[in-house]
């Protein structure tokens, strides 16, 4: 059986490309500044803010807004343990699905070459 149905059942909150990019970047560091994430992902401020709000609402990231030297606004984002688990699970699922599809394809190639 091919795992194509599993692709349709992936966590859509995590699977959305911009959010997957953000979560993957955050999983590689302790915290990131908003502007760094914006530059890294290539998202606009509004788009990144929107995606971060969805991730925060789901408990996958923590957003801290504060001022540096009482004047300069700074927003930092941390991935939560739930967020880290979700993105790691997502990548494992994608790898497993990809491996299964490749194996099925190799199996079909062997079958068609013997005919």
TrEMBL record:
<dbReference type="InterPro" id="IPR027395">
    <property type="entry name" value="WH_DNA-bd_dom"/>
</dbReference>
<dbReference type="InterPro" id="IPR036388">
    <property type="entry name" value="WH-like_DNA-bd_sf"/>
</dbReference>
<dbReference type="InterPro" id="IPR036390">
    <property type="entry name" value="WH_DNA-bd_sf"/>
</dbReference>
<keyword id="KW-0238">DNA-binding</keyword>
<protein>
    <submittedName>
        <fullName>Transcriptional regulator</fullName>
    </submittedName>
</protein>
<dbReference type="Pfam" id="PF13601">
    <property type="entry name" value="HTH_34"/>
</dbReference>
<dbReference type="InterPro" id="IPR011991">
    <property type="entry name" value="ArsR-like_HTH"/>
</dbReference>
<feature type="domain" description="Winged helix DNA-binding">
    <location>
        <begin position="19"/>
        <end position="97"/>
    </location>
</feature>
